[in-house]
Amino acid sequence: MNLLEVEGVRKTFTLHLRGGEQRVALAAPAFQLQAGECLVLRGPSGAGKSTLLRCIYGTYRADGGSIRLRYADTMTEIVAADPRHILGLRRWQMAYASQFLRVIPRVPSIDLVAEAALAQGVEASAAQERARAILLRLQIPISLHALPPANFSGGEQQRVNLARALIGSHPLLLLDEPTASLDSENAALVLAEIQRAKLAGRGILAILHDPQQIARVADREIYLSPGEKQA
Amino acid sequence: MSLVETPALQARQLHFSYAGRAVLHGIDLDLYPGEVLAIVGESGSGKSTLLRLLYGALAPNSGEIVAVDERGLQHSLRELSQQTLRALQRSSWALVTQNPRDALRMQHSAGANIIERRLAQGERSYDRLRAEAQDWLRRVEIDPARIDDTPEQFSGGMQQRLQLARVLISRPQILFLDEPTSGLDLSVQAAVLDLIRRLVQSSRMAVALVTHDLGVARLLAQRLLILQDGRVVESGLVDQVLEDPQQPYSQLLASAVLPT
């Protein structure tokens, strides 16, 4: 059984404040993703790569088409699903790491990271332990764990954000440029985490640009072309 | 691990008029355990009135509100006696408003304010009550040594946290928040929001949050409902409504949010 099936997904923004102007953001090709597989989205800026991840996560409402995610041995539809249903899928089935961390005032990094595990019913001290281990693997030193990430560097924030997505047992990971603001050493740590997730049987849909990085983790690539949006 | 649970509160087709003017038209909503539902809109949109209807402080002209208790039994608010409704509001529910002075007993000590609900629940041991009051002061980050001070001696932000401690001590099933952080300094607002956030995560409390501040809604809520002129113009996941608003009015509101 596939983990994720995407078919005929389109996204248009109607800009009511600009006289109802329509902006086509995405016309995605059909694809499937298996457990334990890493699929990389490629294509120029503006082709709709991030838009596709957000449509899958439910942050954007796709205009049409079908996005089906495996849940309890059935494929469950995300397009036009009830918000409560999507919240349930986010809790158990899919995790998303955007490029930018949304900082919450006063909340220590380790608690931000532990959140998804707690939501899945992991006991508090075990969730903290898991969060600490992931942060250390991503070379966020222990002295930073108790601090809110508000004044961390861009690269540190990005790794905290990635740790938030990795900590749960979500079968699907949606990663939007997880290596974007990282030097090569830290990028290698992130690629190692992707490998680790694959070995754990998770499916990964990631936006990456660097051909060497893609070669290290990708099983397949999908190319989004801006031209197809006009089709 | 069922994806969707039973709501704690359901409202169907609520209509409310005041002095011949329609304030709310045909509101439907569900509130679930363990979630924060934000109700946002500008002044005069009807959001505070809606909260008062849900809490049972006002009765709708038509429509129905059904509360589901912890045992899964449904109670239509309309059919509850005043006495039962008051008992529900004082133990299983809690209302926190913008102005803590309206809710606190300003001449009584902080400790006396906090334990009131526990007394009503039948707790009589002075030692236990005092220990609980100190525990709750600590939880809301007020120095427990100030247990015998009156709220009059507290800052606005401390009074607001005291108001929260005063109702949360009864472990309510539903918390109704009306602009809980308006008028607080930003640092104090952050402390109060952090407290609410932790309490929701650590309990299965359902929260209906009325706010005009989309940043506060984004921080606390999972779902969002936008009111304009007493109607729901859009509702959905908080990130979806703010990042991909569908209606002209929602787009106007979302475009006015300051970047964080």
Total count of helical runs of at least 4 residues of chain A? 8
Multimeric state of these chains? Answer: heterodimer
Structural class by SSE content of chain A:
alpha/beta
Q: Can you write the helix and strand succession of chain B as a string?
A: EEEHEEHEHHHEHEHEEHH
Largest sheet of chain A: 5 strands, antiparallel
* Radius of gyration of chain B (Å): 18 Å
Tell me the distance between the termini of chain A. 31 Å
Average predicted local confidence, pLDDT of chain B: 92
Q: Identify the strand order in the major beta sheet of chain B.
A: 6-7-8-3-9-10
The counted number of beta strands of chain B is 10
The main pleated sheet of chain B reads as: 6 strands, mixed
- Point out poorly predicted stretches of chain B: none
Q: What general form of chain A does the structure show?
A: globular
The share of residues in extended strands of chain B comes to 15-25%
Total beta strand runs of chain A: 10
* Rg estimate of chain A, integer Å: 18 Å
Mean pLDDT of chain A: 94
How do the SSEs of chain A run, as a string of H and E?
EEEEHEEHEHHHHEHEHE
Report the sheet-strand fraction of chain A: 15-25%
Q: Overall 3D geometry of chain B? A: globular
List keywords for this structure.
heterodimer, A: 231 residues, alpha/beta, 5-stranded antiparallel β-sheet, 5-stranded parallel β-sheet, 10 strands, B: 260 residues, 6-stranded mixed β-sheet, 4-stranded antiparallel β-sheet, 25% strand
Please provide a written account of the structure.
The complex is a heterodimer of chains A (231) and B (260). In chain A, the strands form 2 sheets. In chain A, strands 1, 2, 3, 5 and 6 form a 5-stranded antiparallel sheet that branches. In chain A, 36% of the residues lie in helices and 25% in strands. In chain A, strand 1 (4-15) and strand 2 form a beta hairpin. Chain A has helices at residues 49-57, 83-92, 109-119, 124-137, 142-145, 154-166, 184-199, 211-217, and strands spanning 4-15, 21-27, 31-33, 38-42, 64-71, 74-77, 94-97, 172-176, 203-207, 220-223. The model of chain A has no long low-confidence stretch (mean pLDDT 94). Chain A is globular and about 50 Å long. In chain B, the strands form 2 sheets. A 6-stranded mixed sheet of chain B has the order 6-7-8-3-9-10, sandwiched between helices. In chain B, strands 2-1-4-5 form a 4-stranded antiparallel sheet, covered by helices on one side. In chain B, strand 1 and strand 2 form a beta hairpin. The A-B interface holds A 13-17, 54, 58-61, 71-72, 82-89, 92, 102-107, 115, 118 and B 1-4, 30, 32, 35, 190-191, 193-194, 197, 201, 219, 222-223, 235-237, 239-240, 243-244, 246-248, 251-252, 255, 260.
